[in-house]
Design a protein that fits this description.
about 200 residues, alpha/beta, Spore Coat Polysaccharide Biosynthesis Protein SpsA, Chain A, 6 helices, 7 strands, about 20% strand, globular
Length: about 200
């Protein structure tokens, strides 16, 4: 029986392809540097977790990067919207036999291994675990069974995503737990979070 599965959604770190809002303020080169730091933080907090780990790339699979192939399985995101991509990833995991699956992004410098471990633990007694971000989206989502409505017709990329998702869960009587609110680094004013960690 497979272990629990952790999926990391990662953008390929290419100039002009990451942190577009931040790049408008500090330039593409600096924005790329920030994103690389976020990727390294995500690697640091996940590489010792005792679960099967998958990296889902945005554009192409890179077999020669910080995600070692002997520790991380590598896949490509598929779908048009973020909801399509998340749903496809969850479908793959549950079809493969995993009982619990958690997906995180690679945008938060505040997420720690303990948040991920707590999410897996909470999925023993909750259908869904959500890590809400300050922007109104989420930095983590975990399921113990597939729930397609959670990923369809949602306001992706807006500050209403978590609220809309909770309303959907309530309407289907799905049990859920919210993790602590954390910040993403999307704008120049949030760079202090990164400097605080250095």
């Amino acid at each position: 029986m497979p272990n629990d599965a952790l999926i990391i959604f990662s953008r390929n770190p290419l100039p002009g392809k990451v942190k577009s809002r931040l790049a408008e303020a500090i330039g593409e080169k600096e924005a790329l540097s920030v994103y690389r730091q976020l990727l390294h933080h995500t690697y640091y907090i996940t590489h010792n977790l005792p679960v099967d780990k998958y990296v889902y790339y945005s554009d192409f699979i890179n077999n020669d990067d910080l995600w070692e192939s002997n520790s991380y399985f590598k896949e490509l995101q598929t779908g048009r919207t973020l909801g399509d991509k998340l749903l496809a990833a969850f479908e793959n995991m549950f079809f493969s036999g995993y009982r619990k699956c958690v997906i995180i992004g690679s945008e938060s410098i505040e997420i720690e291994a303990t948040h991920i471990e707590q999410a897996f633990s909470l999925l023993d007694n909750h259908d869904v675990v959500i890590g809400p971000a300050q922007t109104g989206g989420y930095y983590l989502v975990g399921l113990n069974k597939l729930f397609e409505p959670m990923f369809t017709d949602k306001p992706w990329g807006t500050n209403k995503l978590v609220l809309s998702t909770i309303q959907e869960l309530d309407s289907y009587n799905m049990s859920y737990h919210l993790l602590p609110l954390l910040s993403d680094i999307d704008e120049e004013k949030e760079l202090y979070l990164l400097h605080h960690r250095q």
